[in-house]
Every structure is written in structure tokens, then in C-alpha cells.
Amino acid sequence: METTLVLIKPGGVNRNLIGEITRRVEARGLKVVGLKLINAPRETVEEHYAEHRERPFFNDVVTYLTSGPIVAMAVQGTNAVKAIRAMMGATNPLDATPGTVRGDFALTIDDNLTHSSSDPDAAARELGLWFPEGTVA
Ligand code: CMP
Questions:
Q1: Distance 95 CA to ligand 1 centre (A)
Q2: What is the pTM of this model?
Q3: Structural domain contains residue 106
Q4: Which of 28, 38, 86, 115 has the most CB atoms within 10 Å of its CB?
């Protein structure tokens, strides 16, 4: 059993995709064990993307994530990390397969709708950052 983090970015919230994305997660058989709609503090987003600090897109992605409300969701299930990554699709929506969230709803890497943890270690770190109070399971 694994728990992973999904962020629905401001573009996804703006486009009223909270329900659609959450529906897909639940329909797959995964369990939502943490859920909040927040205006993310810049420091939290900077910490979240710390591995990208030296990348040219770092400032833009941090500014984007703080441009409006986001959803932070903790998702639990067998192989949840890999299952969620596959459901969201490739980081660049142009490479994302139809049937994935990005393949169905996104066109550009700057507005790729969601973030999901890349591996179990990243999931543990990111869940601690976004759910310091813990999750319900
Ligand atoms: P995410 O999975 O949230 O991780 C880092 C984010 O930076 C990524 O999704 C994209 O939204 C954004 N980004 C912008 N440009 C790039 C790029 N060239 N490579 C990777 N991520 C990028």
C-alpha cells in the first residue's frame, strides 16, 4: 500500500476540473485520504520544487502555482505512486496519451494541470510538506 501526492494546479481549478480529476482517481479504486483547497504559500511551493531550483522554469512554475487556489490531495492504494503518474500522463501534454488527464485536457507543459509524486521517497517528502498534520489513513 502506498500514499502519493496529487496537486491540481491553478489551471485545473480554474477550468473546474477538480471533480473530473478526483472522479478518475476514485474510479480507479484509489482512496482519497487527504484533501484541501488552498492558496499555497510561495515558500511551500519553492520547497516542493526544490529539485528544480536551478532550472530555467523554476520561477515561472512557482509563480504559476501561487497564482490561484490549488488542490492538494493525498491518494492511497496499491502501487498508488505509479498508478497516479500513469493516469496523469507525460509531463509534456503533447506527449501524453489520450485517456490520461493531460492527454485529455492539457496542451502545454506550463499548464499541465496536475503534479504527482515521481517515486515513493518523493511522495513521503511531499506529503510531509503539504499535509504536515497528517492524513486520515
Ligand atoms: P510538475 O510535474 O509539476 O513538475 C515541475 C513542473 O515544471 C512541471 O510539472 C511543469 O509544469 C513545469 N515545467 C515547465 N517547463 C518544464 C520543463 N522544461 N521540464 C519540466 N517541467 C517543466
A1: 13
A2: 0.97
A3: no
A4: 115
